[in-house]
Amino acid sequence: MSGFKAGFLWGGAVAAHQLEGGWQEGGKGISVADVMTAGAHGVPREITDGVLPGKNYPNHEAIDFYHRYKDDLKLFAEMGYKCFRTSIAWTRIFPKGDEHEPNEAGLQFYDDLFDECLKLGIEPVITLSHFEMPYHLVTEYGGWRNRKLIDFFVRFAQVVFTRYQHKVKYWMTFNEINNQANFHEDFAPFTNSGLKYQPGEDREPVMYQAAHYELVASALAVKAGREINPSLQIGCMIAMCPIYPLTCAPNDMMMAMNAMHRRYWFTDVHVRGKYPQHLLSYFERRGFALDITEEDKQALTQGCVDYIGFSYYMSFATKATDDNPQLDYDETTSLVSNPYVQKSDWGWQIDPVGLRYSLNWFWDHYQLPLFIVENGFGAIDVLESDGTVNDQYRIDYLAAHIKEMKKAVVEDGVDLMGYTPWGCIDLVSAGTGEMKKRYGFIYVDKDNEGNGTLARSRKKSFNWYKEVIASNGEKL
Ligand code: P53
User: Ligand 1 center to residue 373 CA distance, Å?
Assistant: First the structure.
């Protein structure tokens, strides 16, 4: 008896913009992912003003899943997937985002994709907005700084809930909505919310305003989804990097608590339908006058999520410093390296125990079913001349995390719905735009410059994960 419940959702996760390609096919509009170039570890992706000639935009072709999904899904079925998490590219359904009528070719593509999944016994798990909002909403409306986006998003949600209600049961609204707590860098505000800042602009209140509109949009979407079909399960999606105090000095502990407040209040609003008092007090202290209406507050209480989906890759650590007497957390300056854990080649701290801690943290706070919808190891893989990839390091990473996940379920009693490792087939990295940062059980022949045959091959981890699923997590 492994402790994972019957029907545990073993599977894999991806996002439309990172694997589909076909960026101009079937009437698709330009998304924010289509104007981001390839970067590298320490080299940010460039956000260009529209699509410019001569630049490398890795998401335009990605791994061509748009044309190859039938074969790729067969490989997922071979591993025994019970579910497959992907997103619906908003720009396939509403190419510009502000149209009144959806694009039928885009809707048909996802009908075909979901039918194919279901034929193979794989349940689709769908994110509505995964770093791929229409670029037109950025240029015309300023992204989520504009309240009008609430209506556009809710319309999109209603269209897809209605269309796919009998094919898709599990949904999430905004992917990693809390990444934008890191608002000093350009990446998270742009990918989460389509925010481009003016030089010298006070970024923080703009981020809170955008997040507020998203949370209202999420709540209205949840409410609409329930009215369309009460059997839909609609969750939120949080990027969980638990923040530890570097030492047991009391102020380090307080600093870590404040940091957790600053990164995870989004979950409070999604789950409880209202803002935590610590954040309202913070707005007051900082003098942030946000547009939060009585109607918004009402909407938030009516659209609480059914479950918490979250990603887990790493933990963070922080410490108090003398120049920060109020112990305010700033994600670009407050993090320190944890001497007790190793790091990946991209500097991500590897901490399997942190997953058990995170599961317990969510469960203690919210008592809602949890779903680990991303976890994985971005690494450089070598394709041997015989076509194999010996990714033992990936197996080690995932096995260590699954062991901790099992302890959280069996020993700690956490209610866990499923586990979908990230990038179950190699795809374009969100953070860097690289192909070289690989997560998959399936190798895709393509490099950072876009060269390669796009051929797929099974890595060593492919057969390993197949056994994990077949044994319901017993054989690690
Ligand atoms: P990449 C930062 C921190 C944690 C998760 O990331 C993150 C990010 C953004 O880079 O993103 C999630 O590709 C995201 C996926 C993404 C995956 O983690 O930068 O939901 O779209 O690909 C891995 O290595």
Answer: 12
